[in-house]
Amino acid sequence: MDTNSRNRWFLDPGPLSSWIDQFADDLAAQRYTPLTIEGYTASARHFATWLGSAGISIDVIDDDVVRGFAEHRCRCPGGRQWLRISPKYSRRAGRFVVFLRRAGVVRPPLKVASPYPLLDDYQSWLRVHRGLSGRTIARHLRHLHKLLPELGTATLDYDAARIRNVVREWRERTGPADLRTITSALRSYLRFLAGVGLCRPNLDHAIPPVLQWRLSSLPRYLAAADCRARHCIL
User: Fold this and answer.
1) CA–CA dist 95, 114 (Å, integer)
2) What would the pLDDT profile of 12-58 be if each residue is shown by its tens digit?
3) Domains in the chain, please, with CATH?
4) How far apart are the C-alpha atoms of 138 and 170, rounded to whole Å?
5) I need a surface site. Which of 14, 44, 104, 149 has the fewest CB within 10 A?
6) Three-state secondary structure call for residue 74
């Protein structure tokens, strides 16, 4: 008997057993190979068995529970003696939890209300109308979360003086390179707000340019005539 068969024999997924079978059918419908499906269902079986041994009921499964599974020191049936399961293995269990959420077996994660709800629309605007990458959008949002506590959320009250004061304060906190990306995010956000009528137009022009002085480049060599002249002087 191979390892997977032995582990399948010892692991008892309990009430999630039938859902693991449906999970396998769902993966097969997506044209996953039998070997890949076996890897996913093995992780799901292990996860379900761990839930039972830890006394965790299905209705409280969330991302924290999945993290607990990823970090548990495995003494589950099947002869395992792992200090910690691999990230790949725990991601497969997480995929099973996503399947359970779609099926309505596990409750969806709680959505925490954002203190800046306009950023949701701004994010969509960047993606749909500006075509920015997810990485760039995330950087813009990160900078705006720094700026908005000082700017405030009353966007119709924004004026040029407030914009310049915020940029001036951040100029004292960070270097030119970071300030350039911060002001780029702010400029973009002000254009979005103006476009939907939530702030005065052209406030993006109130953002002062970020100046960065650079040393003049030095020549990498001296011409022969310059070398002779320098030798005579010395």
Assistant:
1) 26
2) 888 899 999 999 999 999 999 999 999 999 999 999 999 988 888 88
3) 3-102 (no CATH), 118-206 (1.10.150)
4) 19
5) 104
6) strand
